[in-house]
Amino acid sequence: MINQILNSAWGQASNLFTLPIRRRRWVDLLVIAALAGIVMGLVFVAREWTVLQRPVVVINLSPWALPKYAILSFARAAAAYVISASFTLVVAYWAARDPLAERFLIPILDILQSVPLLAFMPVVLLAMVSIFRSSNIGIELSAVILIVTCQAWNMAFSFYQSLKTVPKELDEVSRSFGMSWSRRLRWVELPFATPGLVWNSMVSVANGWFFLMAAEAFKLGSRDFRLPGLGAYMSVAVEQGNVRAEIYAILTMLALVILLDQLVWKPIVAWSQRFQMDDAVKVEKHRSWLLRLLRRSELWLRIRRVITNLVPERRPRPIAPSDISEEHTAFQKVLGGTMLILVLLALALGGVKLLGVLTSVSSPEWIRLVKAGGASMGRVLSATVLATCWTLPIGLWIGLSPTWSRRLQPFVQVVASFPASILFVALIVALQRVGVDLFTSSILLMTLSTQWYLLFNIIAGAQAVPMNLREAAKAYRFGLWKTAWKLYFPAIFPFLVTGWVTATGGAWNASIITEIVQFRGQTYTTFGLGAIVTQSADEGNIPLLAASAILMAFMVVLFNRLVWAPLYRLAETRYALNR
User: Which of 3, 75, 98, 281 is the most exposed place for a label (fewest CB within 10 A)?
Assistant: First the structure.
């Protein structure tokens, strides 16, 4: 059977480009050109990754070099997203379905999402460079992994929250039919989680662009690990004070964001709407010109038929619950326990080595770090409050109105995907000139980096409010404020908690950029843990860098245990509409 399928697929693939293109030839030619462009781009990126390590990378500030840098930056972001999505599907599912693993994995995710980017960079970079001594793969992989550290957590929490709020009737039906865990994941849980995962993927990719400059223009002490890309281009332009090059970089990034929105995110959002679970929710359908164009291509239809034959679709069949093997369930528990033990052992070994590094940090330095952590915590919470104040009403307005949702979501997607960190230096200098110190401006800049987490989650929550409840509120003549307090706020509360958790994590990461800025030989800094992390990384002070990261992780975990964990339980037990 398998041989027949492979032979049939091979025959169709061999005829794919040899048969005449009969209708809409220009559409098929566009598909061929796009495939050829993808192949050429992969070859170009592979050559760049496999070249010998260069002591110093010279960044060309000519505008003609920007397309090459844009391709390299996009390749790193795409590789990071693939790793983040794979991590999300494995770890979030594991945490949601294994109570024992959940006790350990969720706190670990809380820690990892808030440990600053530069705290990962020295260890990851030195390890990768030592593994790949003769090529540039080590430095490239370290940049990709660094982007993963600011992408994966938001996606993982979104998928975890979706799995924990799957409607009971769907879960009961799947279990009554005896579906295995893999079938439930494919036919129930993944479709239910897809809309939220798509929106949070856009936020995660936008956050990856946010830290592109740090990942591509990293320095550790006297060693320069710069990589050619848009982040490095912008970093060199800022260092040299080349305003024209900065404008070129901003325009190129804007063009790249718009292209990704039209060619990637808009088709994915339109596709994800087929998984809308609640028919009572009124959401205007998104349309994608790219999907309509592909449906008119005979060549694309043939490619889809080849893929379908290679991977035949199998519908779930009813299976009696008694037919489910208890040994299979026991094997899953043993496998999950073994993986958890390996994870904890790895963390324990890392902890032992870390304690040896921390012994060189003096008591006065620890006291200084604690004070700096309190200052950064105040900025993080202030930025989260400011972001909530404007995203809550605007997100409800956009999400509850199908018309405005269709009109504004493309604009919001583009603005959210644009990395605000590119503009940070110019904004800080402008605010300094009008008398706003870095203590205040860093809060405003943190707000720019956290607001999109909240806005996208609030929009998703507002779109999930059932229309029958909205009609009931109108029938009982609830006013605007009563409807918001009794219906809208409780309905979006689970989404809002997820937005708060990821927003505060993003704010902690943003502190390493907003609390210290270098511009034309001058350094603007304010007292905070993020500034200490950046300074210790620049100086190559690994013990102080590790101590800063550990303190930040401890503060985040303590706050999560005292605040976010009770709010998550409240959202699951009292404010989940599908319970």
Answer: 3
User: 336, exposed or middle or buried, with CB in 10 Å at 0-12, 13-18, 19+?
Assistant: middle
Measured in degrees and rounded to the nearest 5, phi and psi for residue 134 equal -100, 0
Q: 205 burial class (0-12, 13-18, 19+ CB within 10 angstroms)?
A: buried
E strands, 389-492, in order: none
Domains in the chain with CATH codes: 1-50+289-319 (no CATH), 51-287+357-573 (1.10.3720.10)
Using CA atoms, how far apart are residues 159 and 544, in angstroms rounded to an integer? 35
pTM check: above 0.90:
no
Would you list the DSSP string of 83-97?
HHHHHIIIIIHHHHH
- For residues 303 and 13, the answer to whether their CB atoms sit within 8 Å is no
Q: What is the pLDDT of residues 395-450, one digit of tens each?
A: 888 888 777 776 776 677 677 666 666 677 667 777 777 777 777 888 888 888 78
Q: How far is CA 533 from CA 9, 126, 372, 442, in A?
A: 55, 18, 11, 15
How would you label 55-68 residue by residue, b for 16+ Cβ within 10 Å and e otherwise?
Answer: eebebebeeeebee
| Phi, psi (degrees; rounded to nearest 5) at 519 | -150, 115
Q: Which residue has the tokens 């018309």?
A: 403
Report the C-alpha gap between 459 and 463 in whole angstroms.
6
DSSP string covering 265-276, please? Answer: IHHHHHHHGGG-
CA distance 189 to 174: 10
Structure token digits, residue 301? 């239809």
